[in-house]
Amino acid sequence: MKKPKVLILRTAGTNCERETASAFEMVGGEPRLVHIRQLRAGHNRITDFDIFVIPGGFSYGDDVAAGRILANEIRRHLPELKTFIRSGRPVLGVCNGFQALVKAGLLPNGRTGEQIASFAANDSNRFEARWTRLRLNIQSHCLFLKDLPEMIELPVAHGEGKFVVKSPKVLEDLKRSNAIALQYVNEEGNLAGYPYNPNGSIFNIAGICNSEGNCLGLMPHPERFVTRYHHPNWTRQTFCKEGIGLEMVRNAVKHVLS
Amino acid sequence: MSALAAPEAAATRDPKHPDFLSATARQLAEMNRSHGWSLNVRELQAIQSYFKSANREPTRAELETFAQTWSEHCKHKTLTGPIRYTEGGKTRRFSNLLRETIMEATLRLKKPWCLSVFQDNAGIVRFDADWALAFKVETHNHPCALEPYGGSATGVGGVVRDVLGAGLGARPILNTDVFCLASPQHAQELPDGVLHPKRTLAEVVSGVRDYGNRMGIPTASGAIWFDDGFLRNPLVFCGTVGILPIQAVRKEVKPGDLIVAAGGRTGRDGIHGATFSSTGLEPSSPTGAVQIADPIVEKRLLDALLTARDQKLYRSITDCGAGGFSSAIGELGEACGARVRLEAACLKASDILPWEIWLSESQERMVLAVPPKHLSALEKIFAVEGVEHRVLGEFTQTGRLQVFFGKEALVDIEMEMLHHGLPKDEKAATWTAPKPSNGRKPRVADDSGKMIREAFHALLSHLNVCSRAWVIRQYDHEVQGGAVIKPLQGAQHDGPGDACVLWPHAATGKMQSFRGLAVAQGINPSYGRLDPYAMALACADEALRNLACVGADISQAAFLDNFCWGNPDDPEVLGGLVRAAIGCRDAALGFEVPFISGKDSLYNEYGHGQSRAVSIPGTLLISAIAPVTDIRKAMTMDFKSPGNAIYLVGKTSREFGGTLYAEWAGIQDGCPPLVDIPLSRRTLLALNHATFQGLIASCHDLSDGGLGVALAEMAFSGEIGAAVDLDEVSRARDMEEESAILFSESPSRFLVEVLPEKEKAFLRAVKNVPIARIGATIANPILRLSGMSGSVFFEEPLSRLKDSWTRPLAAAMDGK
Q1: Contact between chains at B215 and A221 (C-beta distance less than 8 A)
Q2: Do A22 and B509 lie within an 8 Å CB cutoff?
Q3: pLDDT in tens, B668-722
Q4: How far apart are CA A106 and CA A97, in angstroms?
């Protein structure tokens, strides 16, 4: 069977590209790290790929604001990404990639291209690296979350991860359209404050998916939980053989193959 | 000495130095002071006679080149120079202290897996059949005293470049950070020009965070030591571990190779960093000597260089650290010669003088030796990654360092003189043993439950024991997806891990190899105040204990040393350093663990040259690295389940010198804990043996605060209670008080949790070491202790113990 081709976008300051590529390789994808300059120069074409990923990092040092410069670059120079999303192929933005997708107006809703949400500094005013509990929206059509348990755990590591919206109406729309794919919760699965919500995101939003279900952006890092040995408590308990993050990328690969 | 060629454009020589050749010793000393060279008169006279024989005045650039190449910072002339050491009426001479102690031990141990030691920018050891690990730890003390954020950020950037310049370049996979500071709660008046330690800590953490996180290197290993002796001169140690293919370990420069500078532009920041770091601090120390950091420029450079390395596009590489181009090109061309055209350099601003370009320590720059035929391929990679670069000249066969700016000759000197012409000055060192312990029993004769409870909370909330989560959570310790044993451990991911374990193959998609590595540290300046020799052994012991706790293979461990001392011109100060170096040698030989790299930082004193100069307590950091054969067998320190046996491995003695309990209880004791190396090695290997058979549920070493602190930490981290009988502890005969058993800091000890069905096998595995089953884990979340009388004298909920341990640092930093 032909392996789905995964474009993993790089630019100055991207730093999660290797483990992201590794995760896709583990589930039968064929990842390729592509620098945005190579795309802009026409050496590679987005349309030649089946899956598009913007991994985490500090693109351009997060100068100005997290993901802002990369978002502008995507808006100006990668209009094909919008078409790619519209074609229904899986698109994933993790951490800095999520920030860039939102700031490029591709999430929550890429049709208008308008930016309706953003990210602020964490409420703690500090970079926060910690594992979070997440509740999945079982009503979401998100292809990455298909058949996953409702409660999962993934690590976050960011300083500017507080999801904010342009107006209360945006939040209402997000709720109504089931765009909120993941929320930070406590052990009981309820919305809770810091440290459960590590950044103070409105309505504990950790991840957003478009209404078509093929474009997911999230602050937690699925690529950091692809084996049981990644979990902070693997020496204490018996976990599943694989990490839940691997299931998420496997879903993307499966979707392409189906 | 051969005749020197006269530089062509004599007229443009710096007018300030017309009289160098005829200067008297006093005039030389004055020049040295006004230019901030940090050379002594004998060294200046050696330079003078070199140029006399050439019958010409030196240029400013030449004098600056000598000053930085011969600086303590670059040359380590104290540790590698002759020393006359006196101890107890006996005198011993060293012609090269480092070579005759630490390096000698490494040579004698002849470990075949040591691939490159004490020669490259980092020590390199074999990891597996195809890969090697490079490890280097640097200090950035002087910059951090003046500008903590920039100082620590450039400290990280610098050591990352060391690893990127080790062999043909290693990919950084781990950063380590160790800080020695005064208490953030310091309430007295601050000396002139000294920053408050709370601000210093906040800023050094931010600097390490912003550089490491942005570069995508996990900062997952470190330590913080608080002691008011570091008020004026904080210590900041930055380390990096990198991974590189075995065939990329060797490097060479061939005449004809191009000198290619890549990365950041050259500016005026960081002029005289090397020389300013080679003297003490004063209120007037130049903040302009601290460089400006840009991690994304370095990340671009890293991405580009590793691609170029794999395509074999360059033959050698080194970083621009202290001394900038002068040092990097001087080192690369040492064996052949180099001809440099500085006008080609890429500059931040055009008003920089040629000698400043040559000496600038602007960050994020590397220098490569590139065969001309590979230049265009290299340039293509640089173009994609957005890396600026310039060809600055070529390596030659002249044996000379020749530097031009346009037609102006700035430098023309022999490599031989530059690298081997430094006159050696014998320094005096003396060590006076502290008065033997008065053997007094602890002042706290009252071993009531109440007093023990007070001691528990005081030690758990001690700044040198309490939680470091405030710092650790600011570091991305999981980027690259390899941190399988994390710095914070336990049920709530907040317990104090002994070491981190990395699984480097996790990010390569080739996960069938479960080989990993662990990194840990040992540091204790309090012991060093009493006896630097004992400190050296204790640091080595602690670093190895930490590694053993997570399941690293001690038989393949390697050490790195970092000596931070005061003014070595003071024989008493230097005596302590010599004693620590001898301790390192004995530890290396006794544990059979070689040192593979090291770095010293001297003149950590305030008010240099004044009668009331204040020096730091001599401080040795030992970092250790070892493979973890199978990361699936790695361990954490938290108790796992109730009903398991708790064993104390190792012997407990009345050892209180420099301990936390002694500080709290006001005990005077001149002798710090002394390591019995053969016993310790036996213990470590026995523990390894049990670990590799999967017989251990959790393991934690006993360090600051002894048994009491370790037991509490394991229990509250695992949310599992413990019932322990102190009378069962294997101990010296005279130890009958509960407090002594609980809080002695005897080295080489571990607490081990063992499942009942594995106890027999465990006891078979740990033969020939002192061991006692001192209790069991219990479901009730309390710590329950019974004492000599056989009855329970202490019972405390884990939540209270944890609370004392969790809060102090965050409270000090956030005021919460």
Answers
A1: no
A2: yes
A3: 776 889 999 999 999 999 999 999 999 999 999 999 999 999 999 999 999 999 9
A4: 11
Tell me the pLDDT tens digit for each residue of A133-170.
999 999 999 999 999 999 999 999 999 999 999 999 99
CB-CB contact of B293 with B351 (8 Å): no
Q: Which amino acid is at B251?
A: K
Nearest CB to B507 within list A18, A61, A155: A18
Contact of A235 with chain B, judged by CB distance below 8 Å, is answered with yes
Average pLDDT value for residue range B767-789 = 95
Q: Answer whether B426's CB lies under 8 Å from B81's CB.
A: yes
What is the per-residue pLDDT across B657-667, written as a single tens digit (0 to 9) for each? 899 998 898 88
Per-residue tokens: B725: 């009988």
Specify the number of domains making up chain A. Answer: 1
pLDDT at res. B253: 96
Whole-angstrom distance, CA of residue B751 vs CA of residue B770: 12
Task: Please calculate the CA angle B630-B634-B637 and round it to the nearest 5 degrees.
Answer: 170
Map out the domains of chain B as residue ranges.
Answer: 10-70
ipTM score here?
Answer: 0.96
Q: Is the pLDDT of residue B162 over 80?
A: yes
Residue B385 and residue A35: Cβ atoms within 8 Å?
Answer: yes
Contact (CB<8Å) A129/B476: yes
Contact B230, B182 (CB under 8 A): yes
Contacts of A21 (CB under 8 A, 6+ apart): A6, A8, A31, A32, A33, B509
pLDDT of residue B11: 37
Q: Which domain holds residue A37?
A: 5-257
3-state secondary structure of B257: coil
- Residue B588 sits at φ, ψ, to 5 deg, of -60, -50
User: Is A12 touching B (CB cutoff 8 A)?
Assistant: yes
**Of B625 and B432, the one with more pLDDT:** B625
Pick the CATH number of B10-70 from 1.10.8, 1.10.1760, 1.20.58, 3.40.50: 1.10.8
Tell me the C-alpha distance between B735 and B725, whole Å: 14
Mean pLDDT calculated for residue range B429-442: 67
A221 is known as an active-site residue: yes
Interchain contact, A18 vs B635, CB within 8 Å: no
For B573, phi then psi, to 5°, come to -65, -45
The pLDDT score that the predictor gives to residue B1 is 35
The one catalytic residue among A16, A17, A73, A95? A95
Judged by DSSP in three states, A216 sits in strand
Backbone φ, ψ for residue A230 (5° rounding): -85, -20
Q: For position A108, which CATH number holds?
A: 3.40.50.880
pLDDT level of residue A21 (50, 70, 90 thresholds): very high
> 10 Å Cβ neighbour count for B761?
13
Using a CB–CB cutoff of 8 Å, tell me whether A234 touches chain B: yes
Q: Could you say which residues from 62 to 101 on chain A have a Cβ atom under 8 Å away from some Cβ of chain B?
A: 62
Q: What's the Cα-to-Cα distance from B777 to each of B565, B694, B723, B729, rounded to whole Å? A: 44, 19, 6, 16
